[in-house]
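Collaboration report, partner site 2.

Our partner group contributed sequences for two proteins of shared interest, and the home lab folded both. The records are reproduced in the order in which they were received, starting with the first partner submission.
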Amino acid sequence: MLSYRHIFHAGNHADILKHLVVSQICHHMTAKEAPFFYLDTHAGIGQYALDSQQAQMNKEFKTGISQLLELKNAPEPIKRFLKIVKDMNPTSNLKLYPGSPKVVEAYTRQKDKMHLCELHPKDYPTLAALFPNKRRANVEKANGFAAVRAMLPPPQKRGLILMDPPYEVKEDYKTVVKALAEGHQRFSHGTYAIWYPVLSRKQADSLINAVQRTKIRNTLLLELNIRDVNTDKGMNGSGMIIVNPPWKLESEAKEFLPVLKDLLQEDNKSSFQLRWITPE
């Protein structure tokens, strides 16, 4: 199935958590001189026009990035991410929202390399046109999970692998864990980031437990729920599972997760999690 189109959801609460975490990881990656490699298994179209017909249909960005831009006295990680958004929107009108590739591009140097995978026949050409320089970013119409096996370990010896499938088929929940285990076996000191939706507590916990069963060490969990996870309102929240996170990420998340919860909550049962699935 290739029916999922992220443009309908761009800039929502789940995007904010995912892209804020990716931004912080890249911030720490570029604190060192050595080059790094970025692999995006489900890159989408790279950036999203919020004034498009698709984005305007549900206007999920209105309760997401639009609210975040109004935040005063934001923690540094949030300020850093918002600068990327503001740089894409030089006027006061919010028209563009960065996908993961554009967030990472804001940090990459000439020596760093991006490999972006997108299988959707309509999204791939748009992504390829956005990143025409193959020396900077290689865009491939391919199964991103297969790229985890094919591209690792990278020549750069440092890297971030983002796996954020749409989970439109239940098999994705198993495949993402399998890809993590295979990737870690090939490139054990790489940083892996798995995004997942919280459609129900049971389904999310099943994925978390499956990651725990891999026994991969040094795995951190960040999760943000904007409403009661037991409500039947679609995606109540989302989370990030980070293998080999930057050592400051936990303390930074302690600061920005409560801010996101208070700002984006839709009921009084909003919540967040920050814990180690497996310690170092």
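Second partner submission, folded after the first:
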Amino acid sequence: MNWTQGVKGFLSYLRLERGLSKNSIEAYKRDVLRLHSFMMASHEDVVLKEVKQDHLVAYIHHIHAAGLNARSQSRMISGIRAFFKYLILEGLLTEDPSELLELPRIGKRLPVTLDISEIEAMIAAVDLSSSQGPRNKVIIEVLYGCGLRVSELTELKRSNIRLQDGLIRVVGKGDKERLIPIGKGTSKHLKLYLEQVRRPMNEQKGFEDHVFLNQKGKNLSRVMVFHIIKDHCAKAGIKKNVSPHTLRHSFATHLVEGGADLRAIQEMLGHESITTTEIYTHLDRSYLQETIRSYHPLERMKKG
């Protein structure tokens, strides 16, 4: 077994058995190929089954010296671990050289969010007289109003929108589907966009069902959505480092601030673990304080 065979099998495993998204698989692929490039440059005579912990430690020192931050290093090491675990699982290796690798310590980083006035300023900054203005406005509203990931937005289908029920269906990570409520305001603007702007005349074959199209009649790329969001942040005078994911963070944070149940937010965001959702409570200390006052036995005794 050589590197090419090992990587090919690993990617098939991620796609077929773990059901990971295309973007996640690409990230794993980059991590493993980067390790392969390092091994070819510094240990060309070492085949895949001969890789030892010392080789991986040397690689970690290499990426650290390259200036990658702790978070990036941690992600890459996790990718390498997953690769060697796959090789063990398939019986292609008997010992896992990545087993004792330590991840760099990462401080918990709270996500950047926008307040309501900043989101309103972004929407107001959209030039509705331009050819793509109405589309861009609805993109901002749907990202914020439904808390979508950018890949979920670019793959959103007209057949999955049920405005009469106030719901949209999206396909998230691992091809898992979920239903998300859509507010009346966002629903109204999305309906107008679909009826008056999103015309079929410029659709390319295979993209007839996509909600958001580019000028060539195909679905938007992730890069284009990033560009749209950053452009309108700049026009609105917002100085924060904003991406499409910032609108998703803002969606969740504002729900927490409004007193929404964490389990409901978890369901809408498509988080597998409630722990991931709990980060949004750190952005709103009043939520934590109110939880203690409302539910802790000693606090209830004081009220009595």
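Feedback sent to the partner group on the second submission included the following. Residues 148 and 180 are 9 Å apart (CA to CA). The radius of gyration is 23 Å.
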